[in-house]
Amino acid sequence: MNTTDTPKNIHQGRNIKRFREMMGLKQEALAIALGEEWSQKRVSLLEQKEKIEDDILKQVAEILKVPVDAIKNFSEDSVLNIISNTFTSTDTSTLNAINYQPTFHPIDKVIELFEENKLYEQLLASEREKVEILKNRNL
Q: CA–CA distance from 133 to each of 51, 127, 138 (Å)?
């Protein structure tokens, strides 16, 4: 049997929990949004279910502002695969998780700042001269 033929083991309840937590909602808040017959306990039980009824799934997706397919198809394996394929690091240590390689030399940026400051000083001196000329004219 090919790996593409195997059914996805997607836990819809766990996905609801992930999306709810990403939105910063507590179970109580989701229960209130779902209606009077819902409680925190019922939301907890919902998040434990592997397969969820379509009508409830649609309600939850609307509240969480995510597509129903996102809850149905979200898989940690695919996310980890995307992350591992897009994140590259030349650092062999596990302590440095950020791959920061600037495309400029920091000293060049410091020199640019000094040059900008010189231009500012020249502009300021020019404006002072203008003010002095205007003062002398009015006297």
A: 82, 10, 9
Lookup result for tokens 């001196």: 125
Q: How far apart are CA 10 and CA 73, in angstroms?
A: 7
pLDDT tens string 50-68: 999 999 999 999 998 888 8
pTM of the model: 0.52
Helix, strand, or coil here: 1?
Answer: coil
Rg of the chain on CA atoms, in Å = 30
> Residues 96-139: pLDDT tens digits?
455 566 677 778 888 888 788 887 888 889 999 999 998 888 76
Provide the token pair at 1: 């049997």
Task: Measure CA of the first residue to CA of the last residue in the chain; give whole Å.
Answer: 98
100: left (phi over 0), alpha (psi -120 to 50) or beta: beta
CB 52 within 8 A of CB 13: yes
